[in-house]
Description:
By secondary structure, this protein is mainly β. The protein has strands at about 5-10, 10-15, 25-30, 40, 55, 80-85, 85-90, 95-100.
Amino acid sequence: CQLDLLHVQWFEQVPPNAGDGSCSLDVLQFPPMNDHGTFDFIDPVDILQGCHLIPAIVKGRSHPNHTSLSPIAKDCDDWNYYYVNRWGQIQYSLNKTVHSYI
């Protein structure tokens, strides 16, 4: 009997900034590592689809000096914020790709 689990680090949604009306994409960030619920285990069959996250380069890195909190977490290259890309790809059985706005 095999039990498959996926270890995940969750994101949290950042509320829109009233002064930043130019960005219509959702913004995410990692919660602090010591917050309850930041990490979890899930069943891989519960994953519906992947998504494309775009680093908010202008907002900088979480650790500008590339010093991670833990060598196991490998968080030295994390960004402060990420944008959620709204373009997705749907694969059809005939290898045709259709782009749709989600």
